[in-house]
From TrEMBL:
Designated name of the protein: Glycosyl hydrolase family 32
SUPFAM superfamilies attached to this UniProt entry: Arabinanase/levansucrase/invertase (SSF75005)
Organism field: Parafrankia colletiae
Family per record: Belongs to the glycosyl hydrolase 32 family.
Keywords: Glycosidase, Hydrolase
InterPro entries tied to this protein: GH32_Enzymes (IPR051214), Glyco_hydro_32_N (IPR013148), Glyco_hydro_beta-prop_sf (IPR023296)
Residues in the signal sequence: none
GO molecular function: hydrolase activity, acting on glycosyl bonds
Domain (Glycosyl hydrolase family 32 N-terminal): residue spans on this chain: 20-287
Amino acid sequence: MPYLLPDVWTWDMWFVDDGHDYHVFYLKASRALGNPDRRHFHVSVGHAVSDDLRRWREVQDALIASDGPAFDDFTTWTGSIVRAPDGTWRLFYTGTSRAEGGLVQRVGTATSNDLYTWEKTSTDALCEADPTWYEKYDGVNWFDEAWRDPWIFAEPDNAGWHMLVTARANHGSPDSRGVVGHATSQDLETWTVRPPLSEPGAGFGQLEVPQVATIDGRHVLIFSCLHAELSDDRRAAGERGGVWAVLVDTLIGPYDVEKASRLTDESLYAGRLVQDRDGAWWLFAFCNTDSTGAFVGALSDPLPVGWSPDGRLHVTDGRFDHLA
């Protein structure tokens, strides 16, 4: 059964395996808000643990917004966790400030020795969108300044670290500027913003919660985009939103996201790929809408994924075969 909490909505999530338990961290907000659209600005980061990726036990929350003034004194949004060479856990997350009305997104970090108690490292952000390559908020081209959902992974030869983020290019048609933003670091503390790893013009207004993985020797990028954030051309062609995937040559790009195909429809969103200790790969997402279109706000059950004969990553139990 999906992980559905009676008193809160849960949505975007990320996972960690400490060798004993699986941990899931997720955005959460009280159902007492009434309108689920309000959840984004009344949010904390929740935490649950499991020994099988199916039965979850909620534990204490991980993060809340900082006392101001700080880059994250309004919201703490989606992120990812890695283990540093010194053995500490590093949580990279998205923050917005009240001074900017939550319109400008930046990335910050917190540390932990046990995955349960977290300490933010600074009231300042690690990095933000660089106007050399990325769109800054102007109140015209898009509804916010996108620099969020950091996905951190090590260079394949351990030469450094990479951060993928939801971002927008500073040129091209406004409805198709979504790109995978990129930053690099040698020490997980100082980050240099780089050019995007995908090109604008692929038909996406934004590519949310990007993640890369290597499944059975093949590299894949997944991201999420709803129907409303597809370009006019894609929507005119009858395309819909959901979780998307595209085969890539290397984990560090470039990524040809124009070739992406859907893993799920919009009933699920913000997909994450997770490998269990037996080597099997699973897709998680949050339960977005039910059959009536109402928001659900729960963590999905794990969905098995694999490669189709034509080289696409797909959910192998057949439930989304209609998307092929």
